Amino acid sequence: MITVLTILVGLAMLATLGVLLAGVLGMSGGKDGSRRSNLLMRWRIGLQFLALALFVILLSLTRH
């Protein structure tokens, strides 16, 4: 179970990084990306929350 949670935390962190990079690249693209940038920011916040929640669960399971 701990191994699965560790992998899920890593995947959530990588997904957050990917959405963050897509948002930064989209913002540098020009004027038409404001709606897309806002959507990506919402996704990034959700993925950050997921990563932190999984990390807290992982920490609570590994502490004795």
UniProtKB/TrEMBL annotation:
Annotated HIG1 domain residues: 1-64
Transmembrane segments: 42-61
One Pfam family of this chain: HIG_1_N
Keyword RNA-binding: no
Keyword Transmembrane: yes
Signal peptide bounds: none
UniProt entry keywords in alphabetical sequence: Membrane, Transmembrane, Transmembrane helix
InterPro entries named in the record: Hypoxia_induced_domain
Protein name: Twin transmembrane helix small protein
